[in-house]
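Now read the record:
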Amino acid sequence: MKDQGYIPGLGASNVDELKEKLKDELEKTRKELNKIDPLKELEEYERKQAIEAQEKKAHENKLRKGRDPTAPEKPYKTLSSFVDVEKISELPLKELEYIWRARFAKHDNALISLVPGEVFDKLYKNARENPTFVLPLPREGEGFDLHYIQWQFVGPNTVHCMFTTLMEFKVHKEFARPHTSIIFHTELKDDKDVVLMNGTVEKDAAVKLPESQLLLLNVQRFYGVLAETEASKRRLQLLKDFTSGSSNFTVEALLAEAQSLEN
């Protein structure tokens, strides 16, 4: 006759023994259930602000069409698409910067910078580990609009960082059109210890140049390229929490850190 406490098929004689046997598996399941979907958390935030969003100007509310999924991918641009790399590599850094900025001087919607090598190394490391994120932009009046940040490592010397409204990303997914596209060029990093950056804000986007500049500033703040302060550590941890799906990531914490004047 079988032991009355025996649990068939599970190899345990009683409930306590079964609990001990499945302890590790139960703990793993608990952690999985505790994970959150950051995008769903953000959807809830945006739902609560839907009434306010209806009061925005019509051109700010309209969704742009996504990219044509049947269209062939265009080749990405390298540094040589913009300047003669061999010639500028021979210039002193000050002259190089002058030529780089002059190259885009007539573009009203351009973002231009020279990034120190050490700063780019931090940015690159954290972007590799956290290739997507969300950042808020203050809305005219009250509230915030959320923007999806996406990194692409398209070539040995070329890194893209793209900003898309979260609303458009949710509708068009991978075919959403970024309103701001930024390119980092590393061709001169070894010789000049600098990475050239250029970006463009789309003319038909609701977002304007100053707003994209603010997003870019917060990319730097959350991706840990500023001073090693407590505020910087908190932002970097929030980025990591978003990537891992940790319940520590909240929209409230994101808004607080994005608005904070602490560096």
